[in-house]
Amino acid sequence: MVKHLWELSLNQIPLAWSKFYEDSLLNYPEGKYIEIKTIDGQVFKTWVNPVQYKNLIEHYFNKFKIQAKDLLKNQNNIDLKDFIQQLVDIDVALYNLLFEWAFEKDSIDENPRLYNPYTYFSSKQYYNYNFYFSPIMQTSFEETYAPLRIFNQGIPIKYSFDIR
Fold first, then answer.
1. pLDDT tens per residue, range 67-117
2. pTM for the full model?
3. Is the separation of the CB atoms in 37 and 45 below 8 Å?
4. To which H or E segment does residue 84 belong?
5. For the residues of 124-157, what is the DSSP string, one character each?
6. Residues 108, 115: contact at Cβ < 8 Å?
7. End-to-end CA distance of the chain
């Protein structure tokens, strides 16, 4: 039974926006610009690329999983405060990336900015502490995955203390 986010595999979790992913894979696999009209009538272009967005979510999720496992293996060699901070950072990133994967988003036409890989990944929005710690309404996503956060589980510390 999975106890922590770093034990999950995205391959076993349905991609909530697979319809948009499949459509973009077929029609514009390299991405495209979409014009957006603001409330005040201004028009600007934004880049969307659900294919790259999905690939980057997979890449970063797997990268953070490996970092968490390595950190846990080496926790006796790391200062306790550093260990906890690094593990919380990783857990926050995993939870946010999992949300991007498993929570159904608006369509590209309704909110194209949601599928802009440059906006999300270059600004490291996966370190959204407000979302991680917020008492938000219970959706099926929170019911399923919030219990796996170390915020809910507790930090798996296996330190041996040398008392002299």
1. 999 999 998 899 989 999 999 999 999 999 999 899 876 655 556 566 667
2. 0.83
3. no
4. helix 80-102
5. TTT--HHHHH------HHHHHHGGGSHHHH----
6. yes
7. 39
